[in-house]
Amino acid sequence: MTSLPATVASALLEADGEDADWPARWQALTGVSVELQSLLVTDPGPELVGLIEQIVTQLADGVASTRRHRVELAELAHRVLGTHARACAQTRPDPVRLADWLLDLQLQHPDAPDVSLAAYADALDEEGLSHYRERAVALFEPLPVIGFGETGRYDRARWALLRVMEELAEYTDDVDLQLLVLSKDLSSGWHYLQVATVLRDNGRGDEALEWVERGLHAVGGRGAALRLIDLAVEEHLRRGSPQRAVQVCKEAFFARPNLDVYLKIRALVVHTDEWPPVRAELVNHLVQDGSRLAIEVYRRIVEVELARRGIEEQDLVVEWLEQLRGLQPDAFADYLEHIKSRHVADRQLLDELSRRGL
Fold it and tell me: What pTM value is reported for the model?
């Protein structure tokens, strides 16, 4: 038993070399793995647990130090770690010491092996898992948040700790841990959306809406903005607050005009008495904005309303066209021809345009 670490050390000595001895050394390493499994049957106990830990550490060191055989050694380390989990289940070592060893193994060897906490459920028990969580969180909380628009700095240490926390959150099904992990990377609006979605799905709607607001402020109407708005609208409607849903959309539209947001608002209130004044408010904002983006959205809104208008709204749409002529005189002629070609069969519209000199 005591000779196994020496066998591993010898086989790993020149794992990156060009010599032809690797097949023999690999056979020796896999032989050690088989021997450990046999000892699990014939000679289980604390001494075997310590021996396996030594060999797992050796193999993990080998993964970090070689390029040529990294994959094989990582798979073997994972296999031996599985033997360690079974040995711990039989022996029940000190749970706090086991928690420390598992955590240190991952933090000191970011490349391998992956630790499955489920495999150590009985050996860790409540005391060991609590210690594991406490240490992991204490190490993770001080990590700086990756702010919006920043490039993630995932050095090996941060990556290893992130992997530990993700596994811990998944194993314990702890929402707060999951949120802690997600909120460390806010480099894009999609990350805000992830946090808000987890909160919404776990019945924490108020917090979800707060994260939506933060996300919308960060993205400035771009990227994940529409999905963030969707989440907020769904939550407000679920609560029976359609007015708040409309308000969220209006605020987003005023921050950065967008046809899709206009259509969301339209769908929410088009069949109510609120639609005419709301629509007027949105269009007036575009006119006052006067930017290239605002005018483009205005043009697209006109096309939408032309396609969906009622007879009583025709005069209004024509007025919008006249307003667009004033906002963008150089490009209006081509735009108007585009409108006429799309509605060539609508004699009523064409006659009204002609009557107004359009």
Answer: 0.83
Distance in angstroms (rounded) separating the CA atoms of residues 153 and 234: 34
Do the Cβ atoms of 73 and 59 come closer than 8 Å? yes
Q: What's the CA angle centered on 241, arms 229 and 288, to 5 degrees?
A: 55
Is residue 279 within 8 Å of 263, Cβ to Cβ? no
Q: What is the pLDDT along the chain (358 residues), one digit of tens a residue?
A: 678 999 999 888 865 555 658 888 899 999 999 999 999 999 899 999 999 999 999 999 998 888 788 889 999 999 999 999 999 999 999 999 999 999 999 999 988 788 999 999 999 999 999 999 999 999 999 999 999 988 866 688 889 999 999 999 999 999 999 999 999 999 999 999 999 999 999 999 999 999 999 999 999 888 899 999 999 999 999 999 999 999 999 999 999 999 999 999 999 998 999 998 999 999 999 988 888 888 888 888 888 887 776 555 677 878 888 888 888 887 888 888 888 888 788 787 787 778 777 6
Phi, psi of 188 (to 5 degrees): -145, 165
d(C-alpha 27, C-alpha 6), whole Å: 15
CB 221 within 8 A of CB 209: no
Residue 146, strand partner residues:
185
Q: Which residue has the tokens 């000190």?
A: 94
- Helix residue ranges, H only, 187-344: 189-201, 205-219, 225-238, 242-255, 259-269, 275-289, 292-308, 314-327, 329-342
Cα(180)–Cα(218) distance, integer angstroms: 19
Please name which of 80, 79, 58 lies closest in space to residue 8, comparing C-alpha atoms. 58
Q: Is 281:317 a contact under the CB 8 Å cutoff?
A: no
Q: Can you tell me the distance from the alpha carbon of 343 to that of 351, in angstroms, rounded to the nearest whole number?
A: 11
CB atoms within 10 A of CB 142: 6
Neighbours of 116 (CB within 10 A): 15
Please state whether the peptide bond connecting residue 44 to the residue before it is cis, i.e. omega within 30 degrees of 0.
Answer: no
